[in-house]
Specification:
The protein is mainly alpha-helical. The chain has one domain. Helix content is 73%, strand content 4%. It has five helices and two strands; from the N terminus they run αβαααβα. The chain has helices spanning 2-22, 39-45, 47-84, 90-144, 167-175; strands at residues 34-37, 148-151. It has a two-stranded parallel ribbon with strand order 1-2. The longest helix is centred in the middle third of the chain and has 55 residues, at 90-144. The radius of gyration is 32 Å and the shape is rod-shaped. Residues 17-23 have low confidence and may be disordered.
Length: 179
């Protein structure tokens, strides 16, 4: 009997604390000195990100139009050579083949240069945004009295209460005109 009484006593003390630990708790952003944000989401939601996306889209469209034009010219020359290869003299056919090879090489170089230009513009736009992002994160962290701000995009954060997401505040701070 004393063994039974001891078990009941222990369970009566432990069960309430286990139940309390399992009860859902709501997190209020003011009570926690920890927050997170998504730099990628902040970029795409910010004015700078929207402008960058429009500029990159325009650059890509322009490049695509130029590449399509060059490809159409190349295809026309290839078709013309295929249709007239039997009637062309050897020297004329050889000149056309060289011209086609030159145009193919030019197209390949154009595509490589366009890709390098696109990546350079993208990198410059992202760096300009990052230059604004760090001070914005610092401002929001200080304003809220945060001790830590985690990067949601880093892969370290597996889950967090959405109330602790300060991405919208950071976007607002980045979008504020500089004084």
């Amino acid at each position: 009997m004393p063994k039974y009484a001891f078990t009941v006593l222990v369970l009566s003390m432990v069960l309430p604390s286990i139940a309390a630990a399992q009860a859902p708790q709501t997190v209020t952003p003011g009570a926690v000195r920890l927050a997170y944000f998504s730099p990628q989401r902040a970029f795409f939601q910010s004015n700078d990100g929207k402008t960058a996306e429009a500029r990159l889209s325009s650059l890509q469209s322009q490049t695509t139009r130029e590449a399509d034009s060059r490809s159409a010219k190349l295809k026309a020359l290839q078709q013309e050579l295929a249709a007239r290869s039997l009637v062309l003299a050897e020297e004329a056919r050889h000149e056309r083949e060289q011209e086609i090879d030159r145009i193919q090489l030019d197209l390949r170089r154009f595509m490589e240069d366009a890709q390098a230009e696109f990546l350079g513009v993208q990198r410059n736009l992202e760096n300009a945004f990052l230059a604004k992002l760090a001070p914005a994160v610092d401002t929001i962290a200080k304003k809220r009295g945060l001790l830590f701000v985690l990067n949601q995009d880093s892969g370290v954060l597996a889950w967090a209460d959405p109330n602790l997401d300060i991405t919208a505040d950071i976007v607002a701070a980045v979008d504020q005109p500089t004084k």
